[in-house]
Specification:
There is one protein chain. It is built from 27 helices and eleven strands. By secondary structure, the protein is an alpha/beta fold. A five-stranded parallel β-sheet has the order 2-3-4-1-5, covered by helices on one side. Strands 10-8-7-11 form a four-stranded mixed β-sheet. Helix 13 packs antiparallel against helix 18 (about 350-360), helix 14 runs antiparallel to helix 17 (about 325-340) and helix 22 packs antiparallel against helix 27. The longest helix has 20 residues, at about 280-300. The relative contact order is 0.06. Its EC number is 2.7.7.7. GO terms for molecular function: ATP binding; DNA binding; DNA-directed DNA polymerase activity; metal ion binding. It is an enzyme of class 2 (transferase).
């Protein structure tokens, strides 16, 4: 006799064997016991959650000759005929390959005849969302008012594709994803019946990898058992067979990423590839690992938030404290985008390596969540005393001291003064030259009409006194409104102080356009004249020629 796959061999034959859909099983059993059976049912949910299985059990139950608490007996001739697929009363149709109007018309013609055996004719239409628009229209009237002996059971994984006119004529039942615990318990039960030796940790991983589908779990288990036929199925063997990665690897990888060890992270990936791990599964599992870290960091009770062993939970708690929520969400975003791209990529390894580099080097991205990660890296470096000592030593070697004697202005000194709260130093005459050289950058600190007027102005000084007073001479008569506004003067003085780190007296004047008129002794700022006035000696500028 040929081998039968586990999911077919252990398909539930009564309601009690169905796992994870108790809310649906209880409702259907109560309807059968009270003889309140509907004429149209819609079973919707993800793959492998029991839609077709419960549809067949319901078809047996409504025709069973010896019901047992609402479940079929599986012993009477009707039940045996349905189990063998030989009953004329249960018709199973695959809408994916029979989706035309003619297929539905055949059903409409058949429902005119009463069942030859049993009470009901049951039509199970699987993947009903695949029917064409014409087929749905042909089904409408029959579905709304079928003969009393006809029951329709529609099953679909994409309920949003079904017309509302069909939905309104059916009792809808939503099948939930089956929990990991429920799947694992069922797998243990079946392995005991089969006499296979399977490690509990391996069963837990298969149950998790099934993603809520009992059929997928049984298929994965069947695959692993066949590969290691006659041997004990361990956790490591399951990982090797499914091309999966152990959580210890994810932990090591995450810590290398947080330390910005790009080469080490790439080496871990290379080791996985050499061991034959499947990159798509690696990306999916790492997203789940990051998701668990996010749940742990956001939950008051991490033990209930994630399904991991105690030792893994302690390690993941420690890792969740090593990075903030924004950084975790950035990691999940990058790998979620990667999971969509990697399906159809020919160079999967390159895409994964690029994603790891992005995680290790947040400076490569300019969006907001990468900025949080960059700030985290900077804070870690600033909090590292070794780095601070190295930076200070390097500064001393380059001639930078804390005395503030260097003449290259001066943003750092100005910031230090402002942060200390002390009053800035008075500007010296030579500071006017620096203001003139950086006049455009000072103007950029202003805005609006005042900025436009400053672009047409000239910074000057009083040649008669030589005092360090900056005169801003405007040439446009419209600037008078800016001169009269004291807020503009405050903004300009603040911009100058930010630039030179000193307090400078500023006066704004309007240039006289009449012949012979002027603004006193105002003159263009020249460093030579200022120095000559203050040190009372001639200034000689030598031209240094290159030696032959």
């Amino acid at each position: 006799m040929s081998y039968t796959a586990l999911y077919r061999k252990f398909r539930p034959q009564n309601f009690e064997d169905v796992k994870g859909q108790e809310h649906i099983v209880t409702t259907l059993k109560n309807q059968i016991k009270a003889d309140r059976i509907g004429h149209a049912y819609l079973f919707c949910g993800t793959r492998g959650t029991g839609k077709t299985t419960i549809a067949k059990i319901l078809a047996k139950a409504v025709n069973c000759e010896h019901l047992i608490d609402g479940s079929p007996c599986n012993e009477c001739p009707t039940c045996r005929a349905i189990n063998a697929g030989a009953s004329m009363n249960v018709v199973e149709i695959d809408a994916a390959s029979n989706n035309g109007v003619d297929n539905i018309r055949e059903i409409r013609e058949e429902v005119a005849y009463r069942p030859t055996q049993g009470r009901y004719k049951v039509y199970i239409i699987d993947e009903v969302h695949m029917l064409s628009a014409g087929a749905f229209n042909a089904l409408l009237k029959t579905l709304e008012e079928p003969p009393s002996y006809v029951i329709f059971i529609l099953a679909t994984t994409e309920v949003h594709k079904i017309p509302i006119t069909i939905l309104s004529r059916c009792q809808r039942y939503d099948f939930k994803r089956i929990t990991v615990d429920t799947i694992a318990d069922r797998l243990r039960e079946l392995m005991e019946k089969e006499g296979n030796d399977v490690e509990d940790k391996a069963i837990r991983y298969i149950a998790k990898a099934a993603d809520g589908s009992m059929r997928d779990a049984l298929s994965l288990l069947d695959q692993c058992i066949a590969f290691y036929l006659g041997e004990k199925l361990t956790y490591e063997k399951v990982l090797e067979n499914l091309g999966a990665v152990d959580t210890d690897v994810f932990s090591r990888l995450l810590r290398e990423i947080l330390s910005q060890h790009t080469s080490q992270a790439i080496k871990i990936l290379e080791d996985l590839i050499i061991r034959g791990r499947e990159l798509g599964q690696f990306v999916t599992d790492f997203i789940w690992y990051l998701r668990n870290l996010l749940l742990i960091s956001a939950s008051d009770n991490p033990e209930e938030a994630v399904d991991v062993s105690r030792e893994n939970l302690e390690r993941m708690k420690e890792e969740s404290q090593m990075l903030d929520t924004e950084t975790l969400m950035r990691y999940i975003r990058i790998f979620s985008q990667l999971s969509n791209e990697i399906r159809y990529a020919s160079q999967k390894r390159v895409l994964v390596e690029i994603a790891l580099i992005k995680l290790c080097q947040p400076v490569m991205e300019t969006n907001l969540d990468s900025l949080f990660d960059r700030v985290r890296v900077l804070e870690e470096k600033l909090n590292n005393p070794d780095i601070m000592i190295t930076s200070r030593s390097a500064g001393e070697e380059n001639g930078i001291s804390g005395s503030g004697k260097e003449n290259d202005y001066r943003e750092y000194g100005q910031t230090e003064q402002l942060s200390s709260g002390s009053r800035p130093l008075k500007a010296a005459p030579e500071d006017l030259q620096y203001v003139k050289q950086n006049w455009n950058s000072i103007i950029r600190e202003t805005k609006g009409l005042f900025q436009q007027m400053l672009l047409e102005s000239t910074p000057k000084y009083d040649g008669n006194t030589g005092d360090p007073v900056l005169y801003v001479e405007f040439r446009n008569f419209l600037a008078q409104t800016c001169i009269d506004d004291p807020e503009n003067l405050r903004i300009l003085k603040q911009a100058i102080q930010k630039k030179i780190g000193k307090e400078l007296e500023v006066k704004m004047v309007l240039k006289k356009e009449e012949p012979g008129a002027g603004n006193g002794g105002l003159a263009d700022i020249s460093v030579d004249e200022l120095l000559q006035q203050n040190i009372h000696m001639d200034v000689t500028v030598e031209n240094i020629e290159d030696e032959d």
